[in-house]
From TrEMBL:
InterPro entries: Acyl_CoA_acyltransferase (IPR016181), GNAT_dom (IPR000182). GO terms for molecular function: acyltransferase activity, transferring groups other than amino-acyl groups. It comes from Aureimonas pseudogalii. It comes from the Bacteria. Residues 33-173 form the N-acetyltransferase domain. The keyword Disulfide bond does not apply. Keywords: Transferase. The keyword Transferase applies. This is GNAT superfamily N-acetyltransferase.
């Protein structure tokens, strides 16, 4: 098994922005929908579509393990649809730390990148993350993620609070 070194940056936001970022006026229909008890195969499709090139491995689990992670009472998943096709998604967890919501995963599928969807989808994730009025919304990104991830989080108002080096298995090994 190949092991990769990465630097993880944890970021935090204490208040949502006053106005959400709108989706581009492109003539396409955009909808962000809450998914209750997302089917495991559909979740795996979304996760793999984005995570494979960035070596995401935290959700490569058995059915029972994945179900425990994503069907918990404090986990919320929303999927962005563009003209009816899944274009992105995010996962929030409000149950791991008191008065804190964690943006566990945030992604735009590769075929929908460079269409101006990242900022509006992240804006929706931030608003959803503050729905239960936590004291903080946190997110982590690392040097294996898309190179635009950290700058985007910062532009949207997240502030870095710590970094650490982590070893992670390469995807598919």
């Amino acid at each position: 098994m190949r092991i990769l070194k990465t630097i993880v940056t944890q970021l935090v936001m204490h208040q949502p922005p006053e106005q959400p970022t709108p989706f581009p006026a492109s003539g396409r229909h955009h909808a962000v929908l809450a998914v209750r008890r997302i089917p495991l195969d559909y979740y795996r499709y979304l996760y793999d579509a984005v995570g494979r090139p960035h070596h995401w491995t935290s959700r490569i689990l058995s059915d029972a393990g994945l179900q425990r992670e994503i069907h918990g009472p404090n986990v919320r998943i929303r999927v962005l649809y563009c003209d009816g096709a899944p274009a992105g998604w995010f996962e929030l967890d409000a149950g791991r730390a008191p008065r804190e919501t964690r943006l566990v995963h945030f992604a735009v599928l590769p075929q929908f990148r460079a269409m101006g969807l990242s900022r509006p989808l992240l804006s929706q994730a931030i608003l959803a993350g503050f729905e239960e009025h936590p004291g903080a919304l946190t997110v982590e990104t690392n040097t294996l993620d898309h190179p635009a991830a950290l700058p985007l989080y910062r532009k949207m108002g997240f502030r870095p609070v710590s970094t650490r080096e982590v070893s992670t298995p390469a995807y598919g090994d």
